Amino acid sequence: MSPTILIVGLDPAMVDDSPSSRLAFPDVDAEKVRSGVAAARARLEELGFTVDVCALDYGRTGDAAYRVALAAKSYDLVMIGAGLRLDPVLTPLLEVVVNTTHELAPGAKICFNVNPMTTIEAVQRWWPEHKYSM
Q: What angle do CA 123, 129, 132 make, to 5 degrees?
C-alpha cells in the first residue's frame, strides 16, 4: 500500500486577499501557490505516494474543514505549508492544525515546507525510504 500524505495549507485565494499575507510573502501570488502545490502533488504521486490537499481559509471554517479532511482516511504524513506558519496572523490556525493532527492522526509524521517548491524535500526528510532524485 502506498504511503498517504495530506498537504494542508492556506487556500491560494487567501494569499492575495490579506495585507499581512502580502507582507509575509511579497513575491508570492495565488497562481504561484496553485502551480507549486500541483507540481509537488504530481511529483509525490510519481514517487508512489497517495496525496490529498486541504486548503484552508483564515480560520473562519479552517478548523472544521481540516477535521473533515484528516478524518477521511489514515495519513502517514501531514505536510503543513509555509503560509500557515510564516504569517503571524495565522498562528492560532497553525496551532489548530498541529493539535488536530496530534488528536486525529497521532501516528502521522509532520513536516513543513518553506514554499510549495520545497514540499518534496520536506516529505523526504520524514519519509526517507522515498528519497529519489527531485
A: 70
Q: How many helices (H) and strands (E) does the chain have?
A: 7, 4
Q: Hey, which residues does 110 pair with through a beta bridge?
A: 78
Helices (H), 1-134: 12-15, 19-24, 30-46, 62-71, 82-86, 91-104, 119-126
DSSP annotation of 104 reads H
Using DSSP's 3-state secondary structure scheme, residue 110 falls into strand
What's the helix, strand, coil split of the chain in %, to 5?
A: 55, 15, 30
Residue for cell digits 513536516? 111
Per-residue confidence of the chain (134 residues) as pLDDT tens digits?
899 999 999 888 876 655 655 556 667 777 888 999 999 999 999 999 999 999 998 767 888 999 999 999 999 999 999 888 888 888 999 999 999 999 999 999 999 999 888 999 999 999 877 554 44
Question: Could you give the CA distance from residue 64 to residue 134 in angstroms, rounded to a whole number?
Answer: 34
